[in-house]
Design a protein that fits this description.
3 domains, 19 helices, alpha/beta
């Protein structure tokens, strides 16, 4: 299952088509993080999409398909692999709030985000009070926060503000108005560094949007690996642990992989061959030289690391790209798929154009083609992974078809990638 362009503090159920619960149905799942002011992930929006045409769907069909997948995914399979220790917001309408399916969900992990125009009738308020007693919390959208909805507001814990619908000059005024209520404010559709800074100035609590997946390109920036991870790998090297275990550590940190390949491909290192993978780099470097390099890294980098939301997106993308191509790419080249995936966000991490990033590395041409233009042997797999993140159903189907990958395989690969990254504890 796969797909998501934005992970909010919510579960956005956007189902389409007369899917029911037949074996042949395809539903894709995706995540986008919600972060705090330090860009640490505090929750996820999960996006569920069917591959049917959404404009042909009836509400009852949407709800039936949505409920089925939601229950299977969150209740039967468990939330640990998908959410870790984070919260998720679930977009619901009035009909869904009234459904018995709600009681089947893990209440302590979910915020129910109320969609559309809603009238706080006595029946609705009573239902919300019952759900709140079970442990559910609620989120409203800023247009719903008004005096006429006071009883509704009393039951809510969050309010979401869509920046695409709030003029910049009105944002401060709106934030002041919302602060009179005991609600945590979430700015959604944050698409630039300027918007992120502005919302922080106006005391928003949490943030979500494309900025955190595709940050604005600014000047050059240094990214540093996690000190804890470097120390962990250092101990593994000192203990002569298996190279596969050391490689696994590198795959947990984009910055560390980037620095390794940049170092070993540097002119000063004097290699006559081209490094093809992380394991190749480690084997050529050797344990003694690797230990010296990691020690130097510890003392020359500061404690600040790349924001975890962006790091997690990159690592998930790397693993998903690798899994999507595992049956179609020669075994000796599969690690390149992982590198293509994680390095595809280096422009965002370093805040510089990708062509400038590649000037700092000596990578095989087919990797560079994928990173720059989504071309070559690896490019289509990277494009498919990105489409999965963005819940781009038509794009997913087109790319999967062109690569002769069954949609079930795409779903399975995305689930495995999400689970793998949660297991890493990134």
């Amino acid at each position: 299952m796969s797909s998501s362009a934005s992970l909010k503090h919510s579960f956005n159920l956007n189902f389409g088509g007369d899917t029911g619960d037949q074996p042949g149905d395809q539903v894709f799942i995706g995540r986008q993080p919600i972060v705090d002011a330090q860009q640490k992930i505090i929750g996820y929006e999960l996006l569920f999409r069917s591959n049917a045409e959404e404009n042909n769907a009836q509400i009852s069909d949407d709800f039936s398909a949505g409920a089925q997948v939601l229950i299977n995914t969150l209740s039967n399979m468990g939330t640990g692999w998908l959410l870790g220790d984070k919260t998720a917001f679930l977009n619901v309408n009035q009909a869904m709030l009234s459904s018995e399916f709600m009681e089947l969900l893990p209440a302590q992990r979910i915020v129910l985000e109320i969609q559309g125009e809603i009238t706080p009738t006595p029946e609705l308020l009573q239902r919300m009070q019952a759900l709140k007693a079970l442990g559910f919390t609620f989120a409203l959208h800023s247009p719903q926060v008004q005096a006429a909805n006071l009883e509704l507001i009393k039951l809510a814990s969050y309010v979401k503000v869509d920046l695409l619908h709030v003029p910049k000059q009105q944002l401060e005024e709106l934030s002041i108005a919302l602060k009179q209520y005991p609600l945590k404010m979430i700015a959604e559709k944050v698409e630039s560094l300027a918007e992120f800074k502005r919302c922080k100035e106006y005391k928003f609590d949490y943030f979500q949007g494309y900025y955190f997946a595709h940050p604005e390109i600014l000047s050059a920036k240094v990214i540093n690996p996690s000190h804890a991870l470097v120390l962990d790998i250092l101990n593994k090297v000192r203990g002569n642990q298996d190279i596969a275990e050391i490689e696994r550590g590198f795959k947990r940190d984009v910055a560390l992989s980037f620095k390794l390949l940049r170092y070993i491909n540097s002119v000063g290192f004097g290699l006559s061959c081209e490094i093809q993978s992380i394991r190749h780099a480690l084997s050529i470097l050797g344990y003694q030289q690797l230990y010296r390099w990691l020690t130097l890294l510890i003392v020359t980098t500061n404690e600040n690391s790349t924001p975890s939301a962006l790091m997690k997106t990159a690592i998930t993308r790397g693993r998903l790209t690798e899994l999507l191509g595992q049956d179609l790419i020669d075994r000796s080249e599969r690690d390149n798929l992982f590198i293509v995936g994680i390095f595809s966000l280096l422009d965002a991490m370093l805040e510089m154009p990708m062509d400038k990033v590649l000037e700092k590395l000596t990578l095989p041409e087919n990797i560079a083609d994928a990173l720059l233009n989504r071309d070559g042997i690896y490019g289509p797999f990277l494009s498919l992974a990105e489409a999965c993140e963005g819940a781009e159903i038509q794009r997913i189907n087109e790319l999967a078809t062109s690569l002769a990958i069954d949609p079930n395989t795409v779903n399975e690969a995305h689930l495995k990638a999400l689970a793998w990254v949660e297991e890493l504890g990134v």
